[in-house]
Amino acid sequence: MDASFDIQAVVDFGVAITGDAGGNGQFCATITGSTSGGTSATCAGVAPAAGTLQIPLTDFDGGAGFSAVASATSTTSSGTSTVTGHFMTAADQLATAAAGVQRLFGVQTFGTPVSIVNATTGMDISFRVTTGMTLIGNAGPTLQIESGPFVIDITPLP
């Protein structure tokens, strides 16, 4: 999959806060652009229109270094599962630096194995975003918006 997510959001906080892209008010929205530009949200006294915010995923280490592989555990209809993400280059090699990341490759290990037998007629595959976005308060009342986690669920159909 592409190594970036696009999100749109408008949130009513009920109290005035400041967006990292500017503005102050109880309503905050994603801006049009990329978080690689350093900003993600604008706030106002009335709900602003949501822009499409592109969130490039190029590092699992949060900027402290570089990590091309990370795992997370979630619960699906198949039990507890582990998703491992790998940042890949355009040549489908494991990336060694954030600048080389072009793709996100994921492997999900299911808690209960998914069995496909001769009687299986198909599969129900769902891609569920568990939290559409993450709101980060930083060091005070300034808002930053990021993408949220996701999980994949596969159920064989008899």
Question: What structural keywords apply?
Answer:
158 residues, mainly beta, five-stranded mixed sheet, globular
Write the layout of secondary structure elements.
Layout: E1 4-7, E2 10-19, E3 24-30, E4 33-34, E5 41-44, E6 53-56, E7 69-76, E8 79-88, E9 103-109, E10 122-129, E11 133-136, E12 142-147, E13 150-157
Parallel strand pairs: 2-12, 4-6
Antiparallel strand pairs: 1-6, 2-3, 3-5, 7-8, 8-9, 10-13, 11-12
Summarize this entry quickly.
Helix content is 0%, strand content 52%. It contains no helices and 13 strands.
Description:
- The protein has 158 residues and is an all-beta fold.
- The chain has one domain.
- Helices cover 0% and strands 52% of the residues.
- It contains no helices and 13 strands.
- The protein is globular, with a radius of gyration of 19 Å.
Number of helices: 0
**N→C terminal distance:** 29 Å
Which term fits the overall shape? globular
Overall tally of domains = 1
Q: Which percent range describes the beta-strand content?
A: over 45%
**Which structural category do the helix and sheet elements fall into?**
mainly beta
Beta strands, count: 13
SSE arrangement, N to C: EEEEEEEEEEEEE
Query: What can be said about the biggest beta sheet?
Result: 5 strands, mixed
Question: What is the average per-residue confidence, as pLDDT, rounded to a whole number?
Answer: 81
> Could you list the spans in which at least 5 consecutive residues all have pLDDT below 50?
none
Radius of gyration in whole Å, from Cα?
19 Å
Query: What percent of the residues sit in helical stretches (DSSP H or I)?
Result: under 10%
Strand order of the largest sheet: 5-3-2-12-11
